[in-house]
Amino acid sequence: MNRSKILNFDITNYKFKELIQDLLKLEHLEKLPNAFDLDDKIKPISKDTHSHPHKLFYSKLDNGWSDFTDLYNKFIKEFVLKTLKKEKILYQTLPNLRISLPNSVAVSTWHRDSDKDNLHPSGEINFFLPITKAFDTNTIWIESEKDKKDFQPINMNYGEIFMFKGGDLMHGNKVNNTSKTRISFDFRVLPMENYDPNHPYKTRTKNLAFKPGEYYSEASI
Predict the structure, then answer these.
(1) Tens digits of pLDDT across the chain (221 residues)
(2) Model-wide pTM > 0.90
């Protein structure tokens, strides 16, 4: 996989949006800031996933949210494996939730996942899945080739997923000037041929090794 690309998936088969709506008790997810009285101050990287909706999401995952994890694992095994045309992969056990509020950012740094501040294995493939409309300054921006720095927004609708090499390509978020909230989640996949059991680093936030049973789970045909 050398090129970034946007793919389509069946939202009637993978009902991620409905699960988030139910979790937040909010039919119109774009109204999230008003529903939760969220402030629009730009947070440092250590705090940009600590809002009340983030805490609801991760707390429910940590306490066994089988409806979500079963759907996520199904998506990995049915959609991602087929897309990558691999017999076996490692994948991020739990995805990341991102929220881009008006006048704020979803993630406060521009980065490559394999750089010295993020420490991920360079062979990972990233997947970005918005569950609200992602466009202009509320979506992810990415360069087309390594070091080209020709950043462009990835404009997408729910039912689309963006696949890219986040270890090679610089990416990030701009201040959201659209007045529309973007909610998304993302995860990383590592083809088995790229797996190094001796990768020396761990995740920055939870100190997990990049191994099956810690940061990764296994999926196979």
Answers:
(1) 667 999 999 999 999 999 999 999 999 998 888 777 666 555 544 455 678 899 999 999 999 999 999 999 999 999 999 999 999 999 999 999 999 999 988 888 898 998 877 789 989 999 999 999 999 999 999 999 999 999 999 999 999 999 999 999 999 999 999 999 999 999 999 999 999 999 999 998 889 999 999 999 999 98
(2) yes
Which residues fall within 8 angstroms of residue 138, CB to CB, at 6 or more apart?
A: 100, 102, 176, 178, 180, 181, 182
CA distance from start to end of the chain = 19
How many CA atoms lie within 13 Å of 20's alpha carbon, on the beta-carbon side? 25
Q: How far apart are CA 184 and CA 124, in angstroms?
A: 19
Per-residue burial over 178-196, b if 16 or more Cβ lie within 10 Å, else e, is bebbbbbbbbbbbbeeebe
Helices 16-24 and 66-75: angle between axes, nearest 10 degrees:
160
User: How many alpha carbons lie under 13 Å from residue 91 in its C-beta half-sphere?
Assistant: 25
Strand partners, 193: none
